[in-house]
Amino acid sequence: MTHDSEKSVKASLPSDQPSLIQIKAVSHAFNTGSGPLPVLDSLDLSIKKGQFTAVVGPSGCGKSTLTRLVAGLLIPDSGDVFLDGKPVKGPRSTVGMAFQNPVLLEWRSILDNVLLPLEIVPDRVPIAEHKERALGLLSLVGLAGFEDKKPSELSGGMRQRASLCRALVHKPEVLILDEPFGALDAFTREDLWQIMHELRAEEPFTTLLITHDLRESVFLADEVVVLSGRPAKAQFTLPVRIDHERTLDDLYTQQSIDMLATLRHQIQLAQGRSTGSNS
Questions:
Q1: 3-state secondary structure of 176
Q2: How far is Cα 107 from Cα 63, in angstroms, rounded to an integer?
Q3: Tens of pLDDT along 224-246?
């Protein structure tokens, strides 16, 4: 695929769904001992309701900063972040998050770890109903029978499955995934990719994934956004048009090979390492 044809792809994204997440002209910098370090520069990004968007880019370009702005854990220096049309000014209970480190509490059972967000943001739903939902999620990700185990009794992949359940137990509108599979071995990672598709089929949520794995982005996402080098802008957007139920075999088709080549070329451009076209 040539660089010119890459540009034409962006214009063909579907527009029938409303945007749930809108990032408008967002700039952000961190204070350091040598002065401000600009991370994001007039970033514009829109994610439609129900969409799975993956964000890739060079190391240190501001991908994790982006997730914290959407979650309300940071406020941008300039520009605005909107969730369902409302400005994000602080943490929102409608957002669930999972990180590379599951951060499960060792003194709590797996079930109690999953239920933790409902203790932080209590509601009027009976605890028995919450437990039923948590147990249903654990069963969906293959952890039925491990509800009473402690985190140290589970493998890394199993702990990450529990972390995903914890992020979803309160039925968030938005699920933010900040490299949740990055520390896992290849086989466990691919297993969790497939579980993510199963979760998405059962749970209606909008997803923002940060990843360094281009195969992961193509397998999971409806679109992949490439950020430029720091301070980052949205450099390029690639729609992923795999309309059937995805399997790992899809990563070895010519379509996926072409998409991965396009993304690698865009990353090279973001790193300033390539000026030629990608064929």
A1: strand
A2: 32
A3: 999 998 899 999 999 998 888 89
